[in-house]
Design brief:
elongated, single chain, 0% strand, 160 residues, mainly alpha, 4 helices
Length: 160
């Protein structure tokens, strides 16, 4: 029965959302600890989980369409619409619980993503400021498009 498969897929998707939350928290710990050396690894792991979530979302869409057709709903019905139209109160409760949990997880993930983005922006800004302090003229260009420190020093005859 498609509804059993849908419920199993929703559990797997929730587990992936938990894993994504964990990976984003790991990334945040690396950022706050200043361990930028490991950020590429953390980012790669986040991307791998996102890829798995994308595939899970496609599988869920297929199963939602199958269940919707069995229950006499349009194939493009949402999970919320399925829960509302469930022929059995137990399935309505299960689908509603899945939906609520996934909405909470998504909100937490968005919050973590935004926080990590702020940390990354601050790190980039700090790096740029540090680089500018090391080579103050590197950020300026002359009329030929060369950096300011590329122009040779000149000696002037004080008598002229």
């Amino acid at each position: 029965m498609a509804i059993h498969e849908l419920s199993a897929l929703l559990w797997r998707e929730r587990e992936l959302l938990d894993l994504l939350t964990f990976k984003l928290e790991e990334e945040q710990l690396l950022l706050t600890a200043g361990k930028s050396r490991w950020l590429p690894h953390g980012t790669k792991e986040v991307e791998q989980v996102l890829d798995r979530l994308s595939k899970a979302g496609l599988a869920r869409a297929v199963e939602v369409a199958a269940v919707a057709e069995q229950w006499g709903l349009p194939a493009e019905s949402s999970l919320s619409e399925l829960a509302s139209a469930a022929p059995d109160a137990a399935w309505a409760g299960i689908l509603s619980t899945h939906l609520t949990a996934m909405q909470r997880q998504t909100a937490a993930i968005q919050e973590l993503r935004d926080s990590n983005e702020q940390f990354l922006r601050a790190a980039v800004r700090s790096t740029q400021e540090t680089a500018a302090d090391l080579r103050p003229s590197a950020a300026t260009y002359d009329s030929q498009g060369r950096t300011g420190d590329a122009s040779p020093s000149r000696l002037f005859d004080q008598k002229i």
